[in-house]
Amino acid sequence: MKKTFSKGGIHPAAEKTASAAIRLLPLPQKAILPLRQHIGAPARATVNRGDHVVRGQMVAESISAISASVHTPVSGTVTSIENIMTPWGTPLEAIIVTASEEEHEADSETRRLEWEQTLAAKTDLSPAKNITPEEILLHAAKAGIVGLGGATFPTHAKLCVRPENKIDTLIINGCECEPYLMCDDALMRNCAPRIVEGAALMLKATGASRAIIAVEDNKTDAIAAMSTAIAEAGNAAISLEVIRTKYPQGGEKQLIEACTGRRVGSGALPASVGVIVHNVATAFALRQAVTAGQPLIERVVTVSGDIPVGERRNYLAAIGTPLSALPFTMPAGNDIHIIAGGPMMGRGAVNLDAPLTKGCCGLTILSGTRRRLAQPCVRCGACVEACPMGLEPYLLSAYGSRQLWREAAVASVTDCLECGACSYSCPSSRPLLDFIRIAKQRARTIKQD
Amino acid sequence: MSSMLATALLLGLTGLAGAFVLYLTARRFHVEEDPRIDSIESLLPGANCGACGCRGCRDFAATCVQRNSLENLNCPGAREGAMKEIASILGVESLPESKRLVAVLRCAGSCKARPIRYAYDGASNCAVMNAVGIGSRGCSWGCLGCGDCTSACRFGALKINSDTGLPLVDTSLCTGCGLCVDECPRSLLELRPAGRRERRVWVACSSRDRGAVARRQCEAACIGCGKCAKECPFDAITLAGNLAYINPDKCKACGKCVSACPTGAIHATFEIKQPS
To answer: Is residue A276 classed exposed, middle or buried when 0-12, 13-18 and 19+ CB atoms within 10 A define those classes?
Structure first.
């Protein structure tokens, strides 16, 4: 029996039907670069309106320990710094860079060549040998790398291990348990050597003794590609762990338990049990930053869902590309759900003019009503069985709807990872997570007081 | 027969003994309470809304008696004249009744002005809707229409109007306690003085988007054009972040701004005479 986490979990249909090839999405003529694409303080713009910028140049710098700088994927002129709307409609300050025809063509050509080189190169761990941990952190900070699995925590801050925490294990998360999404899968199949190089750099930066690349067992091609790349690298510290497919296997605490058997306590960080978890795409981005000197200006995204099979694809898209540039045919009918991210943890997108940000793994387009009318709770306990954190979702949700924030805080609502397994498993279709999310936000503010 | 008698006697005696113990306990732990507390409490609305700053109506009454003055103590929910009666119970001079406040909605995005653009199938709750996005009507500032405020109101003064999809304040019931103000996740309700002869003017919009953007989202949006501020003879209107605000202390409810507003974002409780 392959390893997995012990409590809860569900098995939604994987629907991983997108083609594994990564296509280059054309660079946008106009890149919209939000100043806040990460957890933490917004970056501060370092350019002014009318300035000329070149591809890869920093346009906003990180101004606190938990923050990340932003770079432009296109050369051009800064046309404005203004408030734009996020995909879900809230205002957000962004820098807008407009490229001229010639610049656009030249950038597209360099980008194509760079990508071909990235695909062709063999595993080479020598850069990781000749670099100090401090240099790696500096590169990560300079390149504006954040956790690309969706949490967008600045990578340099996570790699910077506090002296009181001894890290012995680094886990590279290639689970991608979210249905429909395949961006990490595609990256592992196409760029496995780059990910292994990234893992080697992370090992060096954290001083961990082993790196485990964890992949769910439904990604057979990715497993094959990763094991070849690991064998090629010839570094005994890096190993592959094939784990059982179960949602949310990609959750940090769940993955740590599956790989090492250690349990991270309530409210504690993985570093407290000597582990650090990074996404495969983050490892890839770190390698690109350190070895190729490329800041985080593009990422792999999936477009999938109830659209023609031929259109379910993975793209290498520049950060700042409007979501509307991702090609898909809108399904017929009125009841269309466009979700930024996957169906379990993504957010409904109402504004497709919004840019692709660092944390956006793709677009899922669903048609038809999936959510039935909520019925009264029948006390069946399905949500309790499904919760991977061992919480009682029915109770937390009731606290949330009755505004009993203190009680919710006592019942460890802040441990919830918002995976949605409770809402998914509820036979009465109750919107459990909706209220738990509110309770979690309010309980956090209580704890701070 | 004798066993029945003995049982009745025994039970009766036990009861008597218990009653005596209770009597002694009540005497021993008797708390002398001012009868004025009860009489003041009977004049209060009993909603325990907390608008006075005390922990409920009983606490308010006790505080009045304890301080033996009405300085800084006022029940906004009390019926007219109740504060005077409380003053006479306490034997102090009644303070001039403070301005009555009522809640107004700073949004006019009715179903007509702001039709539903996105389907929302989550829980019917404003806080939830606000947490996941902008709501079904495409405005990130306006009313979400799920009625969190109506369930917060303890006086039944707020109801969702089925024609507009917005909450409607029944000013005859509103006490200005402010529970709805705290409840609204977008802070759309504001307490404003009821005004002389119930004449009130306010900006019924909270959108801080640029004019063109706001107008695209809602026909009744304030576009921050500033016409009202120019028109106002009392200098009561200020513009901040593409949104006009009428200072209730300076406003004389003349209604000039209402006719000046190109989008009809300024609401009044009275008929405006159109300039001929």
So the answer is: buried
